[in-house]
Amino acid sequence: MDTHLRSILKASTYRATGTIVTFGIALLLLGQIELAVKIGILDTLLKILVYYAHERMWEKVNIGKRKPPEYQI
User: Fold this and answer.
1) What backbone torsions phi and psi does residue 60 show, to the nearest 5 degrees?
2) Is the pTM of this model over 0.85?
């Protein structure tokens, strides 16, 4: 099971990549760096929250999970 910190770190690194893509698309379509930056920041903040919630909800679903061993040596 992932910790909350791990889920936050995974979401952040995933979104960093997505932000670059969103910024690039916004800049290409709008041609305004300031507006592209604002769109990239807003997109990142919202999608980190959505990804985190999605990740935590999936943690409650048992489909495809392996049970941890009863003991370890």
Assistant:
1) -85, -15
2) no
First to last CA, the chain: 20
Q: Provide the CB-side half-sphere exposure for 44 (13 A, CA).
A: 19
> Do the beta carbons of residue 24 and residue 40 sit within 8 Å?
no
Contact (CB, 8 A) for 48 and 12: yes
Between CA 20 and CA 24, with CA 23 as vertex, the angle to 5 degrees is 85
Rounded CA gap, 15 and 19, in Å?
A: 6
Q: Of 37, 42, 44, 35, which is closest to residue 17 (Cα–Cα)?
A: 44
The mean per-residue pLDDT over the stretch 66-72 comes to 82
